[in-house]
Specification:
The structure holds 2 protein chains of 2 kinds. Chain A has helices spanning about 15-30, 40-50, 65-85, 95-105, 115-125, 145-165, 165-180, 185-205, 215-230, 235-250, 260-270, 340-345, 350-355, 355-365, 370-375, 460-465, and strands at about 60-65, 275-280, 280-285, 290, 295-300, 305-310, 315, 325, 330-335, 380-385, 400-405, 415-420, 435-440, 440-450, 475-479. Chain A is of the alpha+beta class. In chain A, helix 6 packs across helix 10. The N and C termini of chain A lie far apart (about 70 Å). Mean pLDDT of chain A is about 70; it is low at about 75-100, about 100-110, about 120-140 and about 180-235. Chain B has one domain (about 5-105). Chain B has no helices and 11 strands. Chain B is globular and about 45 Å long. Strand 15 of chain A pairs parallel with strand 1 (about 5) of chain B.
Chain lengths: ~475, ~110
């Protein structure tokens, strides 16, 4: 029997090589677009992907406006799970009402009741799908179905293209796209890592119960999941490469079965809105955000990095008005857009009592470092390598550190040690701001850490932060 | 003085002897051994090499780091890498004071 063989497409044409960067840019722009989703396209993609995965298409596709709604499902599922395990006993006996009561204050009416109903139906019908305490953030979908969709419309296509091109070309392009793509999606990718780590840590410590304070935090993380899914997902590099061969090189040049290209189109269509919660029988999908404010940073090698940043308003706004505020890619809070510019909401007291050192750093920069210290009535108790001048003169030596006392009427004084990162920033362009020390074109981050009010000098204060005394603290390397 | 290093808010000190009471081993996250992770930034103090293990030290927030073979490199997005020779180390998050509790520096 004669067999037909077809040569591998092992080398790109000059035209295709030159088109890689533009294709990547187009994918990133598409990922970060705030245009309304094309509902027909997305729903067509979902239906097709379910079929390619060998499943009945969902009977209903539910569109939700924001991650607030995304979070309601996991919270509801988490509560039901905790209740089922006897960890959390509702005041009254009717679970559904208790879940609704618990969730309602935090979602401010932005979640259709059907979301909670659907999720409750899903978790109630099959105990194996219940979220484990600590994993409630991940109760987002039917995991087996999610994997089936990815296998059928993502992995299968990628393997077919790899077979048609050969490992060498495929791997080279994947690395090239991965290296360049990772930076624009970097902030989201990092935050997803944070979410996973924190959830695991919570689970280990037994902090699985949903708490009111977790709500904004969870929205923030879930938003990162949304962007992550669109711009920086673990398989986005492969999807980008798939679309490169399909749309730029040309599907006809490869011996890949035609159906594989249909699968890849369906997958792109399905993922062209926000995040998905696929379930048997129904699928929840979010609209994209309506506003997204990013700052562009170019490092010394010319790589572009995008970070969320907007001091005048939220960096992310959703269709239902929920919003998240970021400064220099650091999450600040989830105040509504109507709250006004961040600067007008800041006081020295609010900065001082903020428990997160990174947030304090960027907020001090926005407020003004000396203004903050003056408004907080700070007195410098000690300084090492101080510049000539007075306590308000900016330092000129990276070894500078200072101890400040902020008197609090009717309360114990707040004492903070003012320190400088010992590694200069790789990104020169973010150096404008008082959260940094700039010397001769290089910049270092500055932090203020609170220490016990009994501290009297910098050496003992810094040693205390590491659980040591001034006599026993002497790191040979600091970076 | 024992061998000490500090990378941002993570302080590491070499131990003479491995502690007897050691808690659960901490799993890797996508191949990375995470010593600490920033909540607001998502940046991580991490070790990529194999042959390195991290354990909970009971009744403290510290960790026990065991480095074998040719050593390991502690990396972070914003800090210069630090090489750690083979040995046992205690890993401690820098802490901050608050009237309610001493808590790890959150970033």
């Amino acid at each position: 029997m004669a067999t037909m063989t077809r040569r591998r497409y092992g080398r790109l044409t000059k035209h295709a090589e030159g088109a890689i960067a533009a294709h990547l840019e187009a994918r990133i722009a598409q990922s970060l677009s705030t245009e309304p989703a094309d509902r027909e396209r997305v729903e067509r993609g979902i239906t097709a992907c379910y079929r390619f995965a060998g499943c009945e298409p969902p009977k209903s596709i539910l569109w939700i406006d924001s991650p607030a709604a995304m979070v309601a499902g996991p919270i509801a599922a988490g509560i039901i799970d905790c209740w089922a395990r006897g960890v959390f006993i509702p005041a009254s006996g009717r679970v559904a009402e208790d879940v609704a009561e618990y969730v309602r204050p935090y979602i401010a009416g932005s979640v259709p009741a059907t979301v909670i109903d659907l999720v409750r139906a899903a978790v109630g019908s099959d105990p194996s799908t219940w979220a484990r305490p600590g994993d409630i953030w991940y109760y987002r979908s039917d995991e087996n179905l999610t994997i089936a969709l990815r296998n059928a419309c993502g992995n299968a296509v990628e393997e077919a293209i790899r077979a048609a091109t050969g490992n060498r070309l495929y791997s080279r392009l994947r690395d090239e796209i991965g290296n360049n793509r990772s930076r624009p999606g970097g902030s989201a990718k990092r935050a997803v890592g944070t979410a996973r780590f924190t959830a695991k840590d919570d689970a280990r410590r037994g902090n699985g119960l949903p708490r009111p304070l977790d709500f904004n935090w969870t929205i923030h993380r879930t938003w990162d999941y949304v962007l992550h899914g669109r711009a920086g997902g673990p398989n986005e590099g492969d999807r980008c490469l798939t679309s490169f061969f399909r749309d730029v090189v040309g599907a006809a040049k490869l011996s890949t079965p035609h159906e594989m290209w249909e699968r890849s189109r369906a997958f792109d269509d399905m993922r062209s809105a926000g995040e998905l919660w696929p379930h048997r029988g129904f699928c929840i999908v979010t609209h994209p955000p309506v506003e997204l404010h990013l700052e562009v940073v170019v490092d010394e090698y010319g790589y572009r990095s995008l970070g969320l940043h907007n001091a005048a308003g939220p960096a992310v706004v959703w269709r239902d008005g929920t919003a998240q505020w970021y400064l220099n890619d650091t999450y600040i809070d989830s105040a509504p857009a109507s709250a006004g510019p961040l600067q007008s909401r800041l006081t020295a007291d609010r900065i001082t009592t903020m428990p997160n050192a990174e947030k304090r750093r960027v907020l001090v920069s926005l407020y003004g470092r000396n203004r903050y210290l003056r408004d907080a009535h700070a007195v410098r108790l000690d300084a090492e390598y101080p510049p000539p001048g007075n306590e308000w003169t900016p330092p000129t030596d990276v070894r500078y550190r200072a101890l400040w006392r902020l008197d609090q009427p009717g309360d114990e004084p707040i004492v903070v040690v003012d320190v400088i990162n010992q590694t200069p920033e790789p990104f020169g362009a973010v150096a404008d701001g008082e959260a940094f020390l700039a010397i001769d074109g290089r910049v270092w981050r500055r932090y203020m850490l609170r220490v016990p009010p009994t501290m009297t000098n910098c050496a003992e204060a810094v040693a205390w932060t590491c659980g040591k005394t001034a006599a026993t603290y002497a790191p040979q390397i600091e970076s | 003085m024992t061998f000490q290093v500090r990378q941002g808010d993570v302080f590491i000190e070499r131990l003479g002897d491995r502690p007897e009471a050691v808690g659960a081993e901490i799993e890797r996250d996508n191949g990375r051994l995470l010593l600490a992770l920033g909540e607001a930034t998502g940046h991580a103090h991490a070790i990529l090499e194999q042959g390195v293990s991290l354990f909970i030290l009971p009744e403290t927030d510290d960790r026990l780091l065991l480095v074998s073979g040719s050593g390991a490199r502690l990396v972070h997005e914003e800090h210069a890498p630090i090489s750690l020779p083979a040995g046992s180390y205690v890993v401690r998050r820098q802490v901050e004071y608050s009237p309610e509790a001493i808590r790890p520096v959150a970033d």
